[in-house]
Design a protein that fits this description.
The chain is an all-alpha fold. The protein has 2 helices and no strands.
């Protein structure tokens, strides 16, 4: 049983790390999209609007990832050898 818990802990830690990496990447994408909006505003309002929609999609996705990480961290904290 302890080996199984060790494997679950390791996988949970790996998932948490990957989710945190993805959340960071989404934040970078959001910043880059904001820069693109700034460049497009004077050139193409419809294009800027579409990029704005893409930017607004990053916010809920990042929030969901943060919630998933928090839930996994809470779960991981419950994994003890007596589990």
């Amino acid at each position: 049983m302890a080996a199984d818990l060790a494997q679950i802990r390791a996988q949970t830690t790996e998932i948490i790390t990957e989710a945190q990496t993805l959340a960071g990447q989404l934040a970078e994408i959001e910043t880059q999209l904001a820069d693109v909006i700034g460049m497009l505003v004077d050139r193409s309002a419809p294009a800027a609007e579409l990029v704005g929609l893409a930017t607004s999609s990053c916010i809920p996705a990042a929030g969901t990832l943060h919630e998933a990480v928090a839930a996994l961290e809470r779960y991981s904290a419950t994994l003890t050898d007596q589990h």
